[in-house]
Write a structure and sequence with these properties.
mainly alpha, 0% strand, 71% helix
């Protein structure tokens, strides 16, 4: 009976701590952290990006934990991708993931897919905790700005 109880306790501990461990492991996979854009975009550009691509309401980001990130994934599986309900529960999370995507990919060239996925998740969470919404949107804009803007200059 003691072996069953100990096994159950170990299983519960693994389930409870594995998201945090995955987060720490993901953060350790890059030599340097992603860098937010130093350029600023106008409030109008921020609002346009937010309304067109990501947001419900006004541009904002809430810091998330690895556990909340898992709930966000569950929300998208349960209710569908890009639903207003999921985006309003976890504001700024999706745009944060796109803002760090290429910097994570550049730092992980040649690594396995699992490394890429966990590291992207970790730095998405990290960005929500360390960058404000203006930095996130400016970094996103730098990588994904519309072709019409690229042609102008």
């Amino acid at each position: 009976m003691k072996i069953i109880a100990a096994s159950f306790a170990i299983l519960i501990a693994l389930v409870c701590f594995s998201p945090q461990a995955a987060y720490w492991w993901g953060l350790s996979n890059l030599d340097s952290k992603p860098v937010a854009s130093e350029k600023r975009i106008t409030p109008e550009q921020e609002l346009e990006i937010w309304q067109k691509e990501f947001g419900v309401g006004t541009p904002r980001v809430e810091p998330v934990t690895p556990y909340r990130y898992l709930f966000y994934i569950y929300c998208n599986v349960d209710l569908g991708l890009r639903t207003q309900e999921c985006e309003s529960r976890y504001p700024g999370l999706r745009v944060s993931s796109f803002a760090v995507k290429y910097q994570v990919a550049d730092g992980l060239r040649g690594k396995r897919n699992i490394s890429w996925q966990v590291t992207w998740m970790a730095y998405t969470i990290w960005a929500t905790r360390n960058w404000d919404i203006h930095q996130i949107l400016a970094t996103y804009h730098e990588k994904f700005r519309p072709l019409s803007e690229l042609k102008r200059g």
